[in-house]
Design brief:
The protein is mainly α and 569 residues long. The chain is built from 26 helices and no strands. Among the domains are: 132 residues, Alpha Horseshoe (Serine Threonine Protein Phosphatase 5, Tetratricopeptide repeat), CATH 1.25.40.10; 67 residues, Helix Hairpins (Orthogonal Bundle).
Length: 569
């Protein structure tokens, strides 16, 4: 009787065993089908994921199923879900080496380097316990990297632990912790290289850090990868447009922004950036037009206004470069040298791109004839780029300029700065011409020596005006050339006598001194009232000439636009 009572229980146990065996067989079949789908490539990953998930529905603690699905999820960049499966697996099997190794890698990708190092430390211990020397060596190498990266990450946590959205917003505004952002860019590159080559989040994070310190080329490289993986990632599109804007590729930036706004017209970052790009195009167009027309002061004013309105803009480097060049155009070393030094500091004293501002500084020093300082700037440029032909070209100009004999200082003669504009030069010339014109001095009581001295000054200001009002001659003069007296030979004798002289001012032997030609042009005392009178260009001084028969000619009306300009040498 007792046997009959136990029979149903025995039948139930048999049924459970049969069902369990059948269930295990189904799970094995599902896992095998998942593996087969996985081996067929990325297009079959969804099928593989469905098979692994179905197997885990039947047995949620199946270790093989948990690991296979976690591995596939990591390949699909679904890191959070993969970590959930690995956590469940390691709760059931704490010494599962492959699961520990995979979780270490995924934790590294999320920036959890400290716990990633802990997982890898456990992997080293397990391999050592099993006496797998190759596994130990491989795990120890990975552990050393993780521990190093973890220490550095902790130091950069004020930047790297921020949510990506916050980091992106700060990159738009311009990072204030420049050094931390720069180091973050370097560390993220190492983490990506060793643990996360396909990780989109880390690449976005690195791009945002790079933009904060205007490393636009690095940002575009990372964002190109991200957009290849996720073409409609609005955040990546916006950051890429910002990087392109920083590189000066405004048309490409606008194209990206239009694509962004077509996907989401209300995406704030793209709308804000699109407005800034239009504004930038207008401002840069005005600056370039001013530089092209040599309106350097106008260009500098526009540059300074843009910098005030948009501090630390992505255009900062280009603005500083334009400002440096504008001061060279003005020949203004007092303002130009500090401006160019600012550009050197921005680009970095060890950056080959700093050669260009060094050369501009050297030219400014050459204009001031500060040759030692110019040579120092050329040496700094040569150290950065020894093969740069522009450096040697400027060095030859410097050597030629240093070897030239002394010449007249036309800026000093007119009493203007070397940065003087044409209007400044014309104004100074007119003032001196009124004071020094011989017709104004005829009635004054002065000695012959004094009169000759004033005559020479008058000739000098005319020479100065002739050179400095001509852009081509002025450039040659600023480069050290004696434009009107090549090779130092000219009429440098006393009172303007046409006597051949050496570059040092000595009369050549064998040549007599000639008397002044046309003595009537050099009156003594109150002199002859019939002295020829001319209107000197730009002075506004009416001057008489001789009429027919030698008599006084009629004075020209003040309304006359006819000017006669004579230069005596």
């Amino acid at each position: 009787m007792r046997r009959w009572k136990l029979l149903p229980l025995l039948l139930l146990l048999c049924l459970v065993s049969v069902l369990a065996v059948a269930g295990d067989e189904v799970i094995r079949r599902l896992l095998a089908e998942g593996d087969k789908a996985l081996s067929r490539g990325r297009s079959h990953y969804p099928d593989a994921l469905a098979k692994y998930t179905e197997a885990l529905v039947r047995d949620g603690k199946n270790q093989r199923g948990l690991y296979s699905r976690a591995e596939l999820l990591s390949m699909l960049h679904r890191t959070a879900e993969a970590l959930q499966d690995l956590d469940a697996l390691l709760r059931a099997a704490p010494d599962h080496v492959q699961a520990l190794d995979l979780r270490a890698m995924l934790r590294a990708q999320t920036g959890d380097l400290r716990r990633a190092a802990q997982d890898e430390q456990r992997v080293v211990q397990l391999y050592a316990k099993e006496r797998k020397s190759q596994g130990v060596a491989r795990a120890q190498k990975k552990l050393a990297l993780l521990e190093n990266f973890a220490r550095r990450w902790a130091q950069l946590s004020p930047i790297l632990d921020k949510p990506l959205e916050v980091l992106v917003q700060e990159s738009v505004q311009g990072g204030k912790q420049q050094e931390l952002y720069t180091h973050s860019v370097s560390l993220l590159a190492l983490v990506i290289e060793h643990f996360a080559k396909d990780n989109v989040e880390l690449r976005l994070q690195r791009a945002a850090c790079a933009l904060a310190v205007q490393q636009n080329q690095i940002a575009t490289t990372e964002l190109k990868f991200v957009l290849k993986q996720s073409p409609q990632n609005l955040l990546a599109i916006a950051l890429n447009a910002r990087a392109l804007r920083g590189l000066g590729a405004l048309n490409e930036a606008k194209r990206e922004l239009r694509r962004c706004l077509s996907l989401d017209p209300e995406f704030g970052l793209c709308a804000q950036l699109h407005k800034a790009v239009r504004k930038q195009q207008k401002a840069t167009g005005a600056i370039e037009a001013a530089l092209e027309s040599k309106k350097y002061e106008q260009a500098i004013a526009a540059i300074d206004a843009y910098r005030r309105e948009e501090p630390r803009s992505v255009l900062e480097e280009k603005l500083l470069e334009w400002r440096c060049d504008a001061y060279l155009g003005l020949r203004d070393s007092a303002r130009g040298v500090p401006a160019c030094r600012e550009l050197v500091a921005l680009r970095g004293t060890e950056n080959p791109l700093a050669v260009q501002p060094h050369l501009v500084i050297a030219e400014l020093y050459m204009i001031d004839e500060a040759y030692d300082k110019a040579e120092s700037e050329l040496a700094a440029a040569r150290r950065l780029d020894p093969r740069n032909g522009k450096i040697e070209e400027l060095a030859q100009r410097l050597a030629k300029q240093k070897s030239m004999p002394p010449r007249k200082d036309y800026y000093k003669i007119l009493g203007v700065k070397k940065s003087a504009t044409s209007a400044d030069i014309r104004r100074a010339y007119r003032k001196l011409a009124r004071e020094l014109h011989p017709d104004q001095l005829r009635s004054k009581d002065m000695s012959d020596a004094e009169r000759q001295k004033h005559d020479k000054k008058f000739r000098d200001i005319n020479e100065a005006k002739e050179v400095l009002m001509d852009d081509e001659k002025r450039t040659r003069y600023d480069n050290g050339e004696d434009v009107l007296h090549p090779q130092g030979q000219g009429t440098q004798g006393t009172d303007g006598d046409p006597t051949p002289v050496t570059p040092t001012g000595k009369t050549l032997p064998g040549f007599p001194r000639f008397p002044k030609p046309f003595p009537r042009f050099y009156p003594r005392g109150s002199g002859d009232r019939n002295f020829p009178r001319f209107r000197v260009s730009g002075t506004g001084v009416p001057v008489r000439g001789r009429g027919p028969g030698g008599g006084p000619g009629p004075e020209r009306s003040e309304r006359s636009n006819v000017f006669v300009f004579l230069t005596f040498r």
